[in-house]
Amino acid sequence: MTHRPRDDADPADGLTVGAVAALAGVTVRALHHWDSIGLVQPSERTDAGYRRYSAADLARIRRVLVYRELGVPLTDIAELLDAPSAEAMASLRRQRAQLRERVAQLHRMGDALDRVIEARTSGILLSDEEQVALFGPHWQPSWPGQARDRWGDTTQWAQYAERAAGRTAAQWQQIADNVAALDAELAAAHRAGVVPGSDWANALAERHRASIGAYFDCTHAMHVCLGRTFATDPGFAAHYDRMATGLSAWLRDVIDANARANGIDPASARWA
What we know:
Elements: H1 17-24, H2 28-36, E1 44-45, E2 51-52, H3 55-69, H4 74-82, H5 85-122, H6 128-135, H7 143-151, H8 155-165, H9 169-191, H10 199-212, H11 220-232, H12 234-243, H13 247-261
Antiparallel strand pairs: 1-2
């Protein structure tokens, strides 16, 4: 049984495909592909059908490698190599513009990643002074760091950081204004004697849960867990009770009743 010799084993004069691959630093498979699509076709073939590349073919391969290194698609490289000078220059300018836009996009992506990294570390990309100005004199700039220490390994903290990373001071101001307006409505409803479980109370509970959604996705079960915290944590309880006496406990009851209306038993609700 006879075996057909490899292209680079052909003793004929000229540059075999294996020799060219070694000189150019590409694979034989790549050269075969370039031949099949007409990008670089060997000038000659031996009587046995083996590819044989001339010096001009090797020079063309080196030009292909220059453009490929610049990220130019193979189909565009063929046009560049064969087009008249004016057309080639126009194509090169287009490629340069695309490359510059790609570089700019990579810089933007890098900046965005920097912000996410910083947000996952600090919790909020605002100075202490900006935080107090936005969230009020009772706000403690240490709170985001405390939240990170407590919940930094959770999915919710990751969501919070990712959303915080893209927010401007103006967007934080809008969130703060919305929260303040909702808190005022909650206090007014409590003073008016709105009963937990009523349509009015349930609507307020849903709005409150949606406001948490500005930071992370909040299920009804998670909302129940937050309601417990609002009523028992001294800091949260003081925040709500400062607006209306007993508001923190009332809000917990409102959240629990709304959870029941949505199929969640508050007694067994867990953070999930």
